[in-house]
């Protein structure tokens, strides 16, 4: 059956379509991008954890969130190095590093090398792909 998938959460396209809202489905399963400044601001300043909207895996801590001014939720590091996976993305004629959820392969956004200390990285995420739980 499952030839190569090592994902912890592996659902069919139809199952994802049923579970997610149309926006969530388009972005996480079809590699969409939400419009800048369209995502909820996730109660900026509150302490908590950001989860994958598809499988609920913890992905980022609010302590790693910063205001990038881009209109997308931005973090300088994931909650752990194995929470997300990196994929080379050459769509739109750009060479970028795509970030996906390690457990369910949801497209989350991209990572760029222009973030703040301590990592110098900017994980530019689609807010639609995340849920926030205050601590
Ligand atoms: Zn996930």
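-> sequence recovered:
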């Amino acid at each position: 059956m499952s030839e190569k998938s090592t994902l912890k959460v592996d659902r069919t396209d139809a199952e994802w379509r049923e579970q997610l809202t149309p926006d969530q489905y388009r972005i996480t399963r079809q590699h969409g991008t939400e419009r800048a400044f369209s995502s909820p601001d996730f109660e900026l300043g509150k302490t908590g954890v950001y989860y994958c909207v598809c499988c609920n895996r913890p992905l980022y801590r609010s302590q790693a969130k910063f205001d990038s001014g881009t209109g997308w939720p931005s973090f300088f590091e994931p909650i752990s190095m194995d929470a997300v996976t990196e994929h080379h993305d050459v769509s739109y004629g750009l060479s970028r590093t795509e970030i996906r959820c390690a457990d369910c392969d949801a497209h989350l956004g991209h990572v760029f090398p222009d973030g703040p200390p301590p990592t110098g990285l900017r994980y530019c995420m689609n807010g639609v792909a995340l849920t926030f739980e205050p601590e």
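The chain has one domain: 13-134.
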